[in-house]
């Protein structure tokens, strides 16, 4: 488990005999760490910080070694970072409106960054990858969610087909979706990549499908704004926010509706503050059966869905 406690440290914990033990602490960042993502197959970690930098950490002979990412055009905090499904690229977004598709340059032996060509108009708050490894969705403070091409010719063997549109060079804008008001807190593709969902500061859940990009299905909830969202199946969403417990919603594409299903409840080990992040924990086939949530008190909870 990799985490940061709101400072410049990244901590690695390992579970032994049912107890989590701190094994490693990194302090290479000069300011608060804002994003961490661990690639499970390649066993690499990307960390991003308010010091304008991102590092890729590789475990060699039991020791973690950092390598600075060349984010030459970034002059503000790096707010989000996420590995691609094949773990050969990652994307980062910053508060100076930059979005970078990062990849390892084998000849030069460093992590390079390809910037998007049409920058958004405000801070990049969240990123998610399409399952085909060649599209990214980003959320911004300008009330918009966008889909960009993330194809890198030196990394991707061939151009994949996509129902969202023709994929070209890295950074090409394919779609732009606007909410009524409220900046975007989180964005997520469905398991097939055919649907895209996001939550915004106006307490609305929005979903759009590749088959009809002109229609955005919205659900105005009675809750305070959600801060995170994931798909646990093709039509089932889990959101987290100020309710201390994740909430499940069902998306019906045919009728254009998003319906509340239930709140996750368990007697012990619950969040004690607003939920900031939800990630998959365990899967059964194509469906996520367990999730983990992290709150502002540093409590991490595993939920059966």
TrEMBL record:
- Gene Ontology CC terms: Arp2/3 protein complex
Q: Where in the cell is it found?
A: Cytoplasm, Cytoskeleton
Q: Keyword annotations for this protein? A: Actin-binding, Cytoplasm, Cytoskeleton, Repeat, WD repeat
Gene Ontology terms for molecular function: actin filament binding
Q: Which residues form the Anaphase-promoting complex subunit 4-like WD40 domain?
A: 82-161
The residue intervals holding the WD repeats read 26-57
> One biological-process term from Gene Ontology?
Arp2/3 complex-mediated actin nucleation
**Is Ribosomal protein there in the keyword field?**
no
**According to its UniProt record, which protein family does this protein belong to?**
Belongs to the WD repeat ARPC1 family.
Q: Which PANTHER family match?
A: ACTIN-RELATED PROTEIN 2/3 COMPLEX SUBUNIT 1, ACTIN-RELATED PROTEIN 2_3 COMPLEX SUBUNIT
* Descriptive protein name: Arp2/3 complex 41 kDa subunit
